[in-house]
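HUMAN: Can I see a protein plus its fold?

ASSISTANT:
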Amino acid sequence: MQQVEKMLRAIILDFNGVIVNDEPHHFMAMRDVVSEFGVIITEQEYWSRYLPLDDENCLQAICEYHSVELSDEQKERALMHKATRYMELIGDQYPLNQGADDFVRAAAGRYPLALASGARRDEIERTLKAANLADCFKVIVAAEDFSLGKPHPESYLLALNLLNRSLSLDSSILPEECLVIEDAIAGVQGALAAGMKCLAVCTSYPSEKLQDADWVVPSLAGLPIDSLKGIFEKNL
């Protein structure tokens, strides 16, 4: 039986590090919060251990690594403080990665888009609204929507499920017909675990650390939308 070649039908993007360049703000906010418990984290430690984690799992991982035990009340206060501190640091800057807004608008004109991120929904929506990108996404999966963070594929599979429910299609979009755009090692691993193709951008890690992805590019700036089909046609 002849194998039917899959085609690109949907794109799922990560948020932090792909669309918005706010990972330094997240690091500084979490650094300030855990310092209250006598924990000092370096930027290198954050990038190597905690980058793809949502706030709750990030705090838990830091505490476990540094042998710190927090009560449920302390955890709740710490997470609220982290969210507040992040908003203080980010202000009204919304530092988008170069070319990300143009890419998203162009991609939205060709494919249904979804976001799958460990960021809080209010942070995502606030940035997308400020950048006039909110209408580009049919689905947003945020930290509040799933429990198993990357590299687990839960967030990507949930995004695809919601995307299929939001569209009126003759046939549902399959995982192998999706392209995930990621910047983190764990994100790439999660996308592949979901059975999806992955494009990695070198905004958070050097290219040699992202080689498991199907395609690695320096950034989304100037990336032609038509070139994405080549990932499925195995021409890249």
Observations:
- The chain has a mean pLDDT of 92.
